[in-house]
Give the backbone structure.
Amino acid sequence: MLSYPTTAYFRATRARPDRSIIKDHWIADAINYPDATEVQSDGRKRVWKTIPEMHGRVLRVILLEDGRTVHNAFFDRSYREPTS
C-alpha cells in the first residue's frame, strides 16, 4: 500500500488496466529519488523516474501543491530527457 496520501482522482484512475500495473514502490521511488522535477503553473509538482523493470519506461507522478499528495501516476510516452 502506498504510504502517501492520494486524491480520489488517483484512486479512480488506478483501477484502469494501463495504470493498475504501476507498483506503489515505483511511485515512492519517483517521489523520493526523481530523475527530473518540474513545478507546474498551478503549483503542482511533476516528478519523473525511469523504471528499469518496465524496460526503461518513464513514470510521471503528479503531486498536489503540498508536494506529498499523489494526484496522478502514469507512464509518460512524451518524456524527453532535459538537454544541457
Q: What stands out?
A: Residues 8-75 form one domain. The longest strand covers residues 45-51. The mean pLDDT is 93. The radius of gyration is 12 Å.
